[in-house]
Amino acid sequence: MEDVVVAEDLSKTYLVAEKDPGFLGTLRHFVRRRYKRIEAVKGVSFRLRPGEIVGFLGPNGAGKTTTLKMLAGLLYPSRGRVRVLGYAPFERRPGFLKRITLVMGNKAQLLWDLPVLDTLRINAAVYDIPEPEYRRRVERFAAMLEIEAILTQPVRKLSLGERMKAELMAALLHHPRVLFLDEPTLGLDVNAQAAVRDFVRRYAREEGATVLLTSHYMADIEALAERVILIHRGRLLFDGGLRALVARFAPYKEVRLDLEAPLEPAALAPYGEVVGVEGQSARLLVEKPRLTAAVARMLAALPVRDLAVEEPPLEEVIGRVFREGRLG
Amino acid sequence: MRYLRLFGVFLLTALSARMEYRANFLAALVIVLLESLGMLFGLFLFYQNGYDLGGWRWQEALAVMGVARFLEGVFASWLNPNLQKISERVQQGTLDYVLLKPVDSQFWVSVEGFAVWGLPSFLVAGLLLAYAAGTVGMNPLYLVLALALATLLFYALAFVLATTTIWFVKLYNVVNFLGAVLWNAQYPVSAFDRPFRLFLTYVLPVSFMTTVPAEVALGRKGPGFLVLLALLAGAFLLFSRVFWRFALRGYGSASS
Questions:
Q1: Does residue B64 lie in a domain region?
Q2: How far is CA B158 from CA A232, A313, B19, in A?
Q3: Number of separate domains in chain A
Q4: A142 & A272 share domain
Q5: Residues A228, A279: one domain?
Q6: Does residue A235 share a domain with residue A110?
Q7: Residue A24 falls within a domain, yes or no?
């Protein structure tokens, strides 16, 4: 099957006006503007196959949102080639727009003062969805998200979690084949996050949809994506399986210690990298080749009550990659 | 056909949104009626004192005011709420969602909103025009055509101005300006001094929005002026589309 998303050497440069602080700065800015070129995305290439769910990771300002907007057709790339479902996104042809969706966790498309159903009805008219089909879809999504009861309440009265679920409903009503999700779980509590995640996974599976999602919550990525793309300062750092990512950037195991008595971090430092000490428990990262020896020495020298060896949390792995800025 | 359905859905949705605030709704009705009465009284005072507005009879001047009130209705019902929303969308970045819909974006941002506040203006316009038609006679077909074309012309002018909010973001001045334009348009253009008249006719086609439509409907000017009006409205409309497309290229979409 054809790749659904193709990005080749994708780049975006913004011109941003610069202004010095203060009144003089404002005057100078008024008379003669200085512009700074900001390269938000630099030569990023990747491809997505049909039905894939891919996590798109990077710290704030890495260029994730800019890339998603170029894929969705909101921004024109400064350089490079981009195709989604065979279309050039920026042309925003109806055939393209009818088959994609973009959800932004920090921007609402729901009408604030009106019940969710009003927005849904507008979208049904926009996408030419016949009445019986519209009812069927609303029923199905509402059941999947468990929000049947709130569809008739004004959006402004809904909780953040309910609102996000309703946003997803509005964004998927036309059954898009490609989903660009930008922080869909932003600010949600754990339960709502899990519900949104389950919904996205189920939708993607049942419709065979391709999903590219960004999130700050590693739990989202771990639950949904088998493949991740990492970008940092506009450049692609890594593109591959989650497991490969951990193997490559985290040749560590995490050792959790439960101690008889509290210890200073300095006392633990010889055995590995201390990640956290809290009272009588401590967490260390130990390189895999040294693991057996380190554990043996700890058991011999420290007042250990209990010891466990685990995979390090994904947050730490990713954080480490970004701090070191290593190229994949 | 889909656009007609969408227009209907927008109308109903906006209506129910406004109905959410019932008190505001009633207050606005009263205000618009009082304002209309005030304007009428102002015009009445001119004629009461034997002042004649550039050779227009009282009933004819009322026809001009009727057209102006009609446009005021268009302004209050559609233009104002929608144009306000354009700048809001630009600020908040929610214009993104409009651009992602498989619908003409200019159509969407022009007609999504609707405010009932404009309806009393239509009522007043209807009364004024009916009175003028009943007393000095008007061609109803010409009147309808002229009103439609005047509406398009006014819309195109307002939309071009509102489009600049993509760069300047603040719409305050644009709305004030359009309000002033409408205020001037309620009197026959020949009531103004010559330099001012030239300005109103050619620089801002204000006289084409109210005076000319009224003149054609009253038979003071031939139907040829309808063609002229159509050409002017068409040109402005076309320009508004080109300008909107151009502006969208500059729309960076408010970042995350």
A1: yes
A2: 44, 56, 26
A3: 2
A4: no
A5: no
A6: yes
A7: no
Locate the chain B residue with the closest alpha carbon to A183.
B256
**Domains in chain B: how many in total?**
1
DSSP A246-262: HHHH--EEEEEEEESS-
Cα–Cα distance measured from residue A300 to residue A254, given in angstroms and rounded to the nearest whole number: 19
CATH assignment at residue A257: 3.30.70.260
Q: Is residue A220 part of a domain?
A: yes
A contacts of B100 (beta carbons < 8 Å): 72-74, 92, 97, 100-102
Report CB contact under 8 Å: A102, B6.
Answer: no
Residue B255 lies in a domain: no
Chain B residues close to A130, C-beta within 8 Å? none
Closest alpha carbon to B180 in B68, B61, B34, B55: B68
Residues of B in contact with A110 (CB under 8 A): none
Q: Does residue A236 sit within a domain?
A: yes
Q: Cα separation of A242 and A216, whole Å?
A: 15
Query: How far separated are the first and last CA of chain A, in Å rounded?
Result: 27
Confidence of residue A123 (pLDDT cuts 50, 70, 90): very high
- The answer to whether residues A140 and A264 belong to one domain is no
Q: Indicate whether A53 belongs to any domain.
A: yes
Distance from CA of B47 to the nearest CA of A (A): 47
Query: What domain range is B230 assigned to?
Result: 2-250
Tokens of A205: 């599976």
Sheet with A273-278, strands from edge to edge, namely: A273-278, A281-287, A252-259, A304-310
**Interface contact A126-B16, CB threshold 8 A:** no
Q: Which helix (H) or strand (E) holds A310?
A: strand A304-310
Partner B contacted by A58 (CB < 8 A): no
User: Which residues of chain A from 92 to 131 reach within 8 Å of chain B, CB to CB?
Assistant: 92, 94, 97-98, 100-102, 104, 106-109, 111, 113-114, 118, 121-122, 125-128
In this predicted structure, the answer to whether residue A303 has a pLDDT above a threshold of 60 is: yes
**What is the domain range of residue A295?**
251-311
pLDDT digits (tens, 9 = 90+) for A81-111: 999 999 999 999 999 999 999 999 888 999 9
| Residue A327 CA: distances (Å) to CA of A3, A195, A213 | 25, 34, 21
C-alpha span between A312 and A296 (Å, rounded): 20
Hey, which residues does A274 pair with through a beta bridge?
Answer: A284
Say yes or no: A167 and A209 in one domain.
yes
Residue A234 belongs to a domain with what CATH number?
3.40.50.300
| Same domain as A301, residue A200 | no
Residue A8 has pLDDT above 90, yes or no: yes
Is A65 at the interface with chain B, CB within 8 A? yes
The interface predicted TM-score (ipTM) is 0.81
For an interface test with A, the pick among B10, B20, B90, B256 (most A C-beta atoms closer than 10 Å) comes out as: B256
Test A108 with B94 for CB contact under 8 angstroms: yes
pTM: 0.83
